[in-house]
What does this fold into?
Amino acid sequence: MSQARSSDQSGLPQTTISGIANDSKTLGLKNAIKLAKVFGVHAEELLLEEVTK
It folds into this structure.
């Protein structure tokens, strides 16, 4: 899924999604919840992936 589409579906700015993908921004709980809904996963999965990078 593109960053633009993720942005549209999550309500997060595309720059935030880009920053998370490029490790220049941390995911955070609120953003993890929004993105988890888009991707159909639990927020914990995204946060665990963030911690293990």
Observations:
- The chain has one domain: 3-51.
